[in-house]
Amino acid sequence: MSELVVRIAARGDGVTASGRHVPFGIPGDAVLEDGALAFGKHHQHPPCRHFPECGGCQLQHADDAAYRDYLVSRVETALAQHALETEIRTPHLSPPRSRRRATLKALKLGNGVAIGFHGEKSHRIVDMRECHILRPELFALVQPLRALLGTLLKPKRGAEVQMTLLHQGIDVLLRHVSAEGLAAIEALTGFAMAQGLARLAVDTGDGPEPVYEPLPASIRLSGADVAFPPGAFLQATEDGEAALVDCVRECVGEERPVADLFAGLGTFALATRAAYAAEASRDTAAALKRASPATLVEHRDLYRRPLDTTELGRFQAVILDPPRAGAEQQVAQLAGSAVGRVAYVSCNPATFARDARLLIDGGYALDWVRPVGQFRWSTHVELAGSFSR
Ligand SMILES: C[S@@+](CC[C@H](N)C(=O)[O-])C[C@H]1O[C@@H](n2cnc3c(N)ncnc32)[C@H](O)[C@@H]1O
Hints:
This protein has 389 residues and is of the alpha/beta class. It has three domains: 3-80, no CATH class; 101-218, CATH 2.40.50.1070; 234-388, 3-Layer(aba) Sandwich (Rossmann fold), CATH 3.40.50.150. It is 26% helix and 27% strand. It is built from ten helices and 22 strands. Strands 6, 7, 16, 17, 18, 19, 20, 21 and 22 form a nine-stranded mixed sheet that branches. Strands 9-8-10-11-12-13 form a six-stranded mixed sheet, with helices on one face. The longest helix is centred in the N-terminal third of the chain and has 17 residues, at 64-80. The mean pLDDT is 97. The site of S-adenosylmethionine has 19 residues, from helix 6 and strand 17.
């Protein structure tokens, strides 16, 4: 008797109705008696030669319909753990080759430099010869980076390469690379000029130091030019950012004034003309302040010092976009506030569901959630949720 795969588990395995985990199983695939998989109509040929060794993608064998269903089920499962249900909208899916930021690992070996993502469940670097998720401009830098790091790294030494596509071009931040000595500086600036980079910065442990930046590096957010500090946060794809902004705008509606918490460079503050924004990174908060003089921007750690109910009382709507740990302390204050709308953007369905439970216990309704697949083919799920009272 064969068994059908009915869902994909959080970590990417297929799961049958009897609960059996099947590596690389996609709903519709059949597990035959000898354990082999008979592919169903949603099982696609993985486009990249590095799949499944590369840890950048776990689900290239799922077609778009199966991948969308997976994103929905991740959100449903997380909500169900807190006895919550809501309308889950059709997920937004970023197209292939749209990722505009990535952090790659590099290692100098006997025969050259390996650069790529870590392997799936391993620390081995998968030397990237093609990539179906990175923007072509970022991938085009991989081979020149091999040559540069070949001259800068000592044998068996590793480095990290953070690349972000900005308004002026690519911003590269190299970690664990020494910029000591004339030869190293010349190699770095020569590379940056030859590649037409927006900026090249090096971090040897004391924070990023730009070694090349012909014009101030910036990003355009909702039409505003915002200075981009080296290593700052940016939504992973441009279309993903637009989808999240649409969700936030819909949730907030005409309600004003708005507060944007965990504001970063102001992706949502600028889109909603927020009256107030809070952000823990000093450089990031300063950049937003310069770009949006009408917004009161506070450099503030919201884990240690969340806005209390009195402070929240000044706003009709609040936007939250915390790191993976969620925003439990801030949400506990919101639950006791009179704020009418809460737009919650999350990169972790589990902490989102935990925080949603607190808001609902405080009298909010969770009106809808939209998953956003910015990290196409990965098990990483982003979402926007709309709460009202
Ligand atoms: C997921 S990013 C979102 C940024 C922004 N909303 C955007 O979409 O570009 C989370 C932001 O929260 C900031 N952050 C992290 N911990 C924080 C804390 N304890 N208090 C305030 N902000 C924090 C980070 O620096 C980062 O800018």
